[in-house]
Amino acid sequence: MDTIINLAKTLAPFLVLAGFVLALLAAFNVYLKKRWSDQPEAQFKFQLIMLCLSLAGVLVLVAALPISETLRGQFLSLIGILLSAAIALASTTFIGNIMAGIMLKAIRKAKPGDFITVESLTGRITEMDLLHTEIQTEFRDLVTVPNSYMVSNPLKVVRASGSIITGEVSLGYDVAHGTARKILRAAAEASGLTDCFVHVRELGDFAVTYRVAGLLEDIHSLISARSRLLEAMLDALHGAGIEIVSPNYMNTRSLGSDRKVIARPSTAREDKTRTDVEALAFDKADDAASIEKLRRAIKTVESELDALAKEEGDHGQAIEKAKRKQQHLQGLLKEAESSVKADSGDEDANADELT
Predict the structure, then answer these.
(1) Does 251 fall in a domain?
(2) What 3-state class would DSSP assign to 268?
(3) Alpha-carbon radius of gyration of the chain
(4) Which of 6, 76, 255, 274 has the highest Cβ tally under 10 A?
(5) Is the model's pLDDT at 342 over the cut of 70?
(6) Same domain, residue pair 254 and 200
(7) What range does the domain containing 288 cover?
(8) How far is 262 from 1, CA to CA, in rounded Å?
(9) Which pLDDT belongs to residue 57?
(10) pLDDT tens for each residue of 299-319
(11) What is the DSSP-derived secondary structure letter of residue 269?
(12) Which H or E run includes 207?
C-alpha cells in the first residue's frame, strides 16, 4: 500500500504536467482554427505551428519524467535518433513534402491563379498547402501534386506580362519560304498576337516545317489563343491556295496535277457565339487568383496607412479614404472566400452522394 501511495505521489506532478500540456495544445488548436477559419491560406501556418508545438510538448514531458538523469538523457537521445531516422527515411515523402512546401513559400516563384507546367502537367494553381499543391487542368479537373514533385522537377510559370504562343505547319517545297513567311505572319497578327515572327524549323524529306509565334499579352485566354492561331494559319494558307502537307500527306485517289487538296470555304452562316473556355476550365483557379489579388490590394492599403501615420502633417482625409478602401476590399475578400467555401461544400456533398 505504501508503495502505491509513494508511486502516486511521484507520478502526480508528471500527470498534472501532462494534462496541462495536452490542454494547452488543445486550446492552441481551437484558437488557431477559430482565428484563421476564414483564411484558407493560413492552413500552412496552422499546421506548421501545431507540428512545432506538439514536438515541444513531447520534449517537455520527456524532460519531466520522474526518472534518473541518466535514463532521461537516454530517452532524449533516443528521441533524437528517432527524429533523425524519420528525417532520413521519410525525406522523400511526408517530411520531404513539408520541406518542399516551405521552400515553395519562401521563393514565391508561383502563387494561386498562375499558369504552370510541371513535367507533362499543365494548368493553373488553385491551392498551395504544406504538403501539396492543387492544380486545375484545362479539362477542369483538380490534380493534387506533392510539393516534393514540384521542387524536384522543372517548374515553368507563365509570366503575367505575356507568353509566346506557337504553332507549326509543314508546307511543300514548291512554296517559296518568303511567301509562306509573309502569309503565316499575317495569320498570327490576325489571331490577335503581337510581335509575330516565323522560323523555318526543319527541312524534311517531303516538306518544310515552319513555326509561327507571337506574344499573347492576355494570358487568361491561353487555350483559346492557341486555337485561334491555328485557325488563322489554316484559313490564311487555304485562302492563298497553298496545300498543307503535314505531317506526310498521301492520297490514293487519282487526282489531276491541277487538283489541290484544299477545303472549300463554308457557305454556312458562321456561329458567332463562342464558349469562354478559360472561364469554364479554370473556374476555381480564377477564384483563387481573385482572392490572392484582393489580399495583395489589402496589404498595399495597409502599407499606405502605415506610411500616412508616420508622416508629419494633417492627413485625416487621406487616412479616412484609405480606411474606407480597406473596408471595401475586406468585404469583397470575405464574399469571395465565402463563395469558394460554398462551392467546395457542394463538391464535397456531390462526392459523398457518389460514394
Answers:
(1) yes
(2) coil
(3) 31
(4) 76
(5) no
(6) yes
(7) 282-344
(8) 103
(9) 86
(10) 887 888 787 777 776 777 777
(11) P
(12) none
